[in-house]
Amino acid sequence: MARSLHFGQLAMVIAALSGTAVADDVERKLTSYEAEARQLGTDLPQPNQRSQAQGQRRLVDAEVAYSLGDYDQAALMLFELSSKPGPDQETATFYLAESLYQKGDRGAARSYYDQLVQKGSTGRYFQPALLRIVEIGIAQNDPGSLDQTVTQLNGLPAGAASPQVPYVRGKYAFSVGKYDEAIADFQAVPKGSDKEYQAAYYTATSYVAKKEYDKAIEIFTDLTTRKPRTANDRRVEELAALALGRLYYERDQPGKSIDTYLLVDRKSDLFPDALYEVAWVYVKGKQFDKALRALELLHLSDPTSQKTPTVKILEGNLRIRKAQSIRQIQINGVIDAKSQMDPQVEYDKAAAVFTETHDAYVPSYEALKLMVDGNLDPASFLAQIAGRSSSVFQATAPIPEAAAQYLRDEPAVQRVVAEETDLGEIESDLAESEATIARLEAVLAANDKTAVYPLLQARRTRIGVIQDDLIRIRSSLHDQLGGEGAETASRKQLMQQYTAMPNAEQSYADHVAQVRAQYDVIDQGTGEVTTAIDSTQAMAVAMRKFANDSPAMPADQKKTVTTTLDEAFKEAQSIENELSALNREIQLGRDLAGVGADEIIKARDIRAQLKQALDNEQRALVGRSNNQKVAALANRAALISDNLAQTEKQIDDAVTRGMAEVKTLIATERTNIAAYKKELADYNAESRAIGTQVLGASFKDVKAKFYDIVIRTDVGNVDVLWSQKEDDDDDLKRMNLSRQREMKQLKDEFRDILEGGEAKKSAPKKTESFGPTPGSAPNGSPDKGTSGGRVSPGAEKASQPPPPPPVQPDAKKPDTKPAPKKGGAK
């Protein structure tokens, strides 16, 4: 009996110790939850508003994007910051202007620089804005609009002016032709500043404009011998090398010119220009082999350059000259007998170069010829030139890329392309804005407050996790307090249902991940369809081009091909529209992945009911239990739960207000977008009209360039053949001269033999004479009864022709009348 009592006391002690440990653990949890609940309820993010910390972080992100060269993203992030008053507005406006300036939108950039200048000289960016305005005016060739800005620059205090001020003033003076003032300003740039190299280069250029070449050469030479500190200094050094090489070339100093050109680094974008000019230096010095090597290296380094046809034609002509020089060396006998140099090889290479260049540019010439002749509309090619083609398939065959590239290099077309690019970006931004508004409207229509504001949703999720743990803690504490009655029974019943259900927050996360994974599968399928459409683009373009360019294809087949491709174009356009709509649905599905989870909604409802039941039971247990420590813990847990519920209600109210504001904002933006689209349509129509005229005029200019290329290649091939003909004629002439010389030499050598043989053959043979003495009459032939003597060999020639035979009495005179023609006389 005593032993069993002892064991019972021990069990009570162990239970007491265990209960104490559990109570301590609960107390630690409640202490942590109290601190976290205060933090969750403090400084709630307000919907549709950006806090100061968020604004500063966004400004830093924009500055990072600007430093990385992503000017589009930087301008997009800075646009809103620059339009709202605040401590960061001035900085945001300056970096927005800089981003627009760097991306080439100088007109828009100048408006923001003007805003900074209007703040006065006390502004932080007053001086940099003035400098940029002057540079924009110079770049736009509008120095007349800079008088006031230059006056403001000149009015800056000497101690407050940055080293860039004299440099920019010098550029302005140079642009208006005041070279002496420009030189003075450039020489005033401090040594060691960022603009030192640029100022020196402009100083030398000013001396060139004044035709003081010795001073210019001295400065350019000094620039090429310095050690650059930055990439900009390195580029100025390379530009100085090019300028110095040109000056030496004009002064007929080819050695110095080539040495200077070779100072340009091979990785520089100026290296092709240096090689091209080096080749001409070699051509001027008639060093054809070196010129050919320079041209070959140029073609390898920049195969898509506009100079390519000129380079190839020059290469062909140089090979003709090289063949002629090799042939001359062979004629003179200077070349080694074992040498492999053959003029025919160079002629073949020249013909191949001319033919290859001709074949490469004839299609472009033919396409432009059709356009100029009026068979094709230039407006249909404006999208291709400007890169604004919205469809994979094209209803018309595109012009060759070589022609497109030449057109893009035309100054007038460049301005059209820049305008079309800007309009294309605006159109893309409006489409993206419409898609964003559609997504917001769909989310708002779902009326799901958990999917709108991610920051508030993150706090709501954490509140749900804490509430879940608090419910279990409070239920355990109420069991320890010995709760009973209807409140306890209701609480236990709801607790059974709640524990049987999955965790709401975890289930929500799993549900969202599962739904998004399903949409990813659908997105992969649409990607395969897009790939299939893209893979047929080249086939469609090639078929249309082949049908248009093939002269042997019958007209009915061309019509069939064109009709089939037009139908394919319409079908492909329909598929692309469906894919766009499907992609929008996929994006919306990802946004609303958490909407419609009935089990999760039910779990949250039961948790709210369970909290209410615990609150009711808590009030019923007040004053009944003697365990004050457990009761205190239960009260603390109830208070934490109430605070969290209050925070969650504040989140719900904030989300409701935010959604109402968003609806109002969406309606306003819908109106604005409609107005922007109408304005964009007007600008598009105007740009198309002007662009079509400019493109049509540029077609003629570029066609003339291609015609020149084609003709020069044809002339090159003719030159090859003519040079070969001249070589053959010269060889034939030299062979005839050589034959004549040899024949003359042979006659001279065998003159005695030839002349001696002729004398022996014609002189009479000396024999013993038995007849009369010389001087007497010749004896006749023995056959004619003359005195004796030998008969000379051969027949005796008559001294005169015999008389004609007498005319017989019965002989008829020949008929001298012409025979009548067949068919009767006329």
Please tag this protein with its features.
single chain; 826 residues; mainly alpha; 27 helices; 74% helix; disordered N terminus; disordered C terminus
Question: How is the topology of this model organized?
Answer:
Layout: H1 2-41, H2 52-67, H3 71-83, H4 89-102, H5 106-118, H6 126-139, H7 147-154, H8 164-175, H9 179-187, H10 196-209, H11 213-224, H12 231-250, H13 254-261, H14 271-284, H15 288-301, H16 308-332, H17 343-372, H18 379-386, H19 401-408, H20 411-446, H21 454-481, H22 486-500, H23 504-549, H24 555-591, H25 598-621, H26 628-749, H27 751-762
Helix pairs in contact: 1-21, 1-26, 2-3, 3-4, 4-5, 5-6, 6-7, 6-8, 8-9, 8-10, 9-10, 10-11, 11-12, 12-13, 12-14, 13-14, 14-15, 15-16, 16-17, 16-26, 17-26, 18-20, 20-24, 20-26, 21-25, 21-26, 22-25, 23-24, 23-25, 25-26
